[in-house]
Write a structure and sequence with these properties.
The protein is of the alpha+beta class. About 45% of the residues lie in helices and about 25% in strands. The strands form 3 sheets. The protein has a 5-stranded antiparallel β-sheet with strand order 2-1-5-4-3, sandwiched between helices. Strands 7-9-10-12-11 form a 5-stranded mixed β-sheet, covered by helices on one side. A two-stranded antiparallel ribbon has the order 6-8. A hairpin with a 3-residue loop joins strand 4 and strand 5. Bound molecules: adenosine-5'-diphosphate.
């Protein structure tokens, strides 16, 4: 907090107490006080210097000049050093002062953009199989009306596309359900060894189909954690299914379950497939992000599996780590709090 010349301490205290960045000016636009948040945003701010030395936005400077008793609001975007958007209110304060308050909208805008992108991505993902379904219906009514061999082939593809849409809708619903409950930490007792074995049993047919063997190595007798059993089943289903789908060329998957420190259980799912180049790793858990869209579609993926894993693990206050050496495979590690 920068102190004011004596006699103005009250207004300066007020500025310091503001939860947002706030600057107090004299009637001619000279800086009289500002708080720490304002200095973070505008490092060139100095007491007794014109505001225009620190902020160049002409719209804001104009509105300071014409400040009146009633507050007026404007939206400004500062582009340096990084782009940030603010809702700014400018109003008279006391007899001659002008108070400028900056409400940072950057995070809200980013969230809004993510929401819009998400809706656009989800619609696009649904539209692709839908267009293919409609196309086949038209063909079966028209040129292939009497071609029963072609019709049988089309029906198989239509079934696949329909199933893909159903999977997508299921994944979208799961995501929104998990997000809705994000603040409630699940606290049932769940035996992770049982969860992992159940998933391996369920995935055995597709592992066999791709000639992959799965080895489980529990280094602990009791791997009970606090959690939601259904959600943890989804986590290991997604990770082990991905290891089978994308890591099949490695022929082997190793799953280890061990104690991590005193309080946690660590489960590592390791495959020996092609792995993922380092630059893609941070994006794997983004919704709809896929290293290869074709490979993901061919294996029935929706691009939402790892986003679901991330959200479930976050809801459990656990940790997800992804490591990979291209050519040597991937390693997904999940850490969850042990149940005492
Ligand atoms: P998908 O439905 O495409 O499988 P995921 O969210 O589960 O969606 O995974 C996102 C992407 O991460 C996949 O499309 C794939 O490119 C990559 N990926 C996930 N697991 C592995 C793995 N074990 N080996 C190599 N790539 C993987």
């Amino acid at each position: 907090m920068q102190n004011l010349p004596s006699g103005r301490t009250t207004s300066a205290d007020l500025v310091a107490a503001y939860p947002h960045a706030a600057i107090l000016l004299d009637s001619d636009g000279t800086v009289m006080a500002f708080n720490a948040s304002a200095l973070l945003l505008f490092p060139l701010l100095h007491i007794n210097q014109p505001l225009s030395f620190a902020i160049r936005n002409p719209e804001l400077l104009d509105s300071v000049e014409s400040a009146g008793r009633t507050a007026h609001f404007l939206e400004i975007v500062e582009r340096f050093p990084v782009e940030r958007a603010f809702k700014v209110s400018v109003m008279q304060a006391g007899a001659t002062g002008i108070l400028v308050v900056f409400d940072d909208q950057t995070a809200d805008r980013r969230l809004e953009r993510m929401r819009v992108d998400f809706v656009a991505n989800a619609s696009h993902e649904l539209r692709t199989p839908l267009a293919s379904l409609l196309g086949f219906i038209e063909t079966m009514r028209g040129p292939a009306r009497n071609d029963f061999v072609a019709q049988a082939k089309f029906l198989t593809i239509m079934e696949q596309q329909g199933k893909r849409m159903a999977r997508l809708v299921d994944d979208l619903l799961s995501l929104s359900r998990i997000e809705m409950n994000a603040s409630i930490r699940p606290d049932d007792k769940v035996d992770l060894i049982g969860v992992v074995r159940q998933i391996i049993d369920a995935l055995k047919p597709i592992a066999r189909e791709r000639d992959v063997t799965i080895h489980v190595d529990p280094h602990v007798i009791d791997a009970t954690v606090l959690g939601d059993r259904d959600e943890l089943l989804r986590v290991f289903e997604n990770l082990i299914e991905n290891a089978i789908k994308y890591g099949a060329s490695g022929k082997r998957i190793d799953i280890t379950i061990r104690l991590q420190g005193e309080r946690d259980i660590l489960v590592v799912v390791r495959d020996y497939g092609p792995g993922v180049p380092a630059e893609y790793l941070p994006r794997l858990t983004e919704r709809f992000y896929r290293v290869s869209v074709v490979a993901s579609r061919e294996s029935g993926g929706t691009g939402l599996g790892l986003a679901i894993v991330k959200h479930i693990v976050a809801r459990h206050r656990g940790r997800l780590d992804i490591q990979s050496t291209p050519g040597e495979g991937c390693q997904f590690s999940i850490t969850l709090a042990r149940s005492e």
